[in-house]
Design goal:
Shape: globular
Number of strands: 9
Number of helices: 20
Largest sheet: 3 strands, antiparallel
Structural class: mainly alpha
Length: about 525
């Protein structure tokens, strides 16, 4: 049985005891909500909400916890196990606050769990004694009339409601993924079973879409981007089909962001068609980050020939992490001007929030985008004025980005190592561009020499740090989410893989660096003739 309170979607078990309904809302509205994938954070001084850490918003009830009003809330903070729900449901509303403070059953709950428990404590459900169907449910002052066998707000009625065992199975699946004791293999198996049940019994398209979207997230955690892409595509199909409009409005952008990231995880192995679809998915996601979804086109100064709406530019400022990803899939799609402009905007956005290292990475990738966009005849030797201009623009972008990392500082050693590795990549690309243009072969040699020196020093430092860590028995540093999934700016080549010799490896360049054939050819020509 599913029902809604405001924009929230609930899944309830199909059993009751007396006149009070039990087994209740498991992960409540977050169970199949897109909010699990959306990344929203509190407003900053300018009124914009940054979009980095995975958090959720709490609909339909007002938080009594002051600490939550201005802070992000992790999804797993919403998890209420069966005992928690029953304790909250059975506690009188007037006594629940005291119970939370004094009873061991509530002692370990975080503030949000207490708020949800308090909310559930006001739940009253009316059940038809002849059919055992739920007629209505009241939570606080909100009453929702539930669909009976003769009425429905969706295009079609399900064949039947999920059984108690099927609901419990879904609870276990979500707990395995979002709970404290995470087990993605178990979550993947149980979600597969739940999806089969939901589809075979023709449950609402919005609910089935949510299950596919969650399993897509699970597949990404299992490092199965192709399978994840298929699940996100199914979620989008259901959301755009009958009953899909019943879903939370954020569900579709979240599914599209998931599919885009799955394709981004494929790197250069993604086809141009996949990359174009992923680019469109990112665009829809960024448009969804602003309430107005504005269509006004804004082309700022020093742009690289591409134009984006004000809504998208605002979205990039809210989530420059995803913007960097968008630029990379545009490079795979051979949209080099678009990729360069997106990376430029992402660099500015990172700069605005004081993240200099990632800003430099974006600037370096902008230069690489422009270098990738040079045709094989863009050598500057008597060719068209446009070719000469493109060559000058790419060369200047690379040179300025390389020089911008001089004063980069920070406490994140691995991030700084990635900056140096990206700088080495840019220097090598610049060497190929300069050599093939015949404009300054001496500078090409100099850039290559500096790149090799810095990369080898970086790799040596990394190996020494690793040896010391292992000797002292320290755990490796925690990586941010996405750093092992292949799509993130935090999953680019780092000190472990960065060395001058690796750039002579065709497979490494093709799979790790997302270089097109033209740029690869320029660098190979330089390495063959110039060394």
């Amino acid at each position: 049985m599913s029902f809604s309170v405001g924009t929230a979607s609930f899944i309830a078990a199909a059993s009751s005891t007396g006149s009070h309904y039990h087994g209740g809302p498991l992960l409540a509205w977050s169970a199949v909500s897109s909010i699990a994938s959306r990344q929203l954070a509190p407003p900053k001084s300018g009124g914009k909400r940054m979009a980095f850490a995975q958090v959720v918003n709490v609909p339909s009830f007002q938080s009594k916890s002051d600490s939550l009003k201005h802070s992000s809330v992790a999804l797993n903070a919403l998890f209420l196990d069966d005992a928690m729900h029953h304790a909250a449901a059975n506690a009188p509303s007037s006594a629940l606050t005291a119970a939370v403070a004094s009873t061991s059953n509530f002692a370990d709950w975080n503030p949000l769990q207490r708020d949800v428990a308090d909310w559930l404590g006001n739940e009253n459900t009316n059940i038809d004694p002849t059919t055992n169907n739920i007629i209505s449910t009241t939570i606080g002052s909100t009453t929702t009339i539930l669909a009976s066998s003769s009425t429905s707000s969706s295009p079609s009625q399900p064949d039947r409601m999920p059984t108690k065992d099927e609901i419990n199975q879904l609870q276990q699946a979500l707990a395995a993924f979002y709970g404290a004791e995470k087990n993605v293999d178990v979550a993947n198996d149980l979600l597969g079973r739940s999806i089969r049940v939901w589809e075979e019994t023709h449950q609402g398209g919005d609910e089935i879409a949510g299950l596919y979207r969650v399993r897509g997230d699970v597949k990404m955690d299992l490092i199965q981007p192709k399978e994840a892409e298929a699940d996100y595509a199914k979620a989008i199909q259901y959301l755009e089909g009958p009953g899909g409009d019943m879903a939370d409005p954020e569900e579709l952008p979240a599914a599209r962001l998931g599919r885009a990231r799955a394709v981004r995880s494929l790197g250069s192995s993604a086809t141009p068609t996949q990359a174009l679809q992923a680019s469109k998915d990112y665009e829809i996601y960024f448009n969804s980050l602003t309430e107005d979804g504005g269509t006004t086109t804004a082309k700022s100064s020093n742009s690289d020939g591409a134009s984006f709406s004000e809504a998208i530019i605002d979205g990039i400022q809210r989530n420059p992490y995803a913007a960097w990803e968008w630029g990379m899939v545009n490079r795979v799609a051979h949209n080099y001007d678009e990729a360069a402009e997106i990376h430029r905007l992402a660099a500015n956005a990172f700069e605005e929030i004081g993240d200099k290292p990632r800003s430099v990475i974006c600037a370096l990738d902008r230069g690489l985008d422009l270098a990738s966009g040079l045709d094989s005849d863009d050598s500057g030797k008597g060719y068209s004025e446009e070719s000469t201009k493109k060559l000058a623009t790419a060369t200047k972008a690379l040179e300025e980005a390389i020089s911008s990392d001089v004063n980069v500082e920070g406490r994140d050693v691995e991030l700084l190592q990635r900056v140096v590795a990206k700088e080495g990549e840019a220097r090598l690309a610049l060497s190929g561009v300069l050599w093939n243009s015949n404009s300054n072969k001496g500078e090409a040699e100099s850039q290559y020499g500096t790149a090799c020196s810095r990369l080898d020093e970086l790799n040596s430092d990394y190996n020494a740090r690793e040896a010391d860590r292992i000797k002292k028995g320290r755990m490796p540093p925690m990586k941010p989410r996405g750093a092992s999934l292949g799509f993130s700016i935090d999953d680019i080549v780092g000190a472990a893989d960065a060395s001058c010799s690796r750039f002579r490896n065709d497979k490494f360049i093709e799979e790790k660096l997302v270089w097109n054939e033209g740029l690869q050819t320029k660098v190979k020509t330089f390495l063959t003739l110039g060394r």
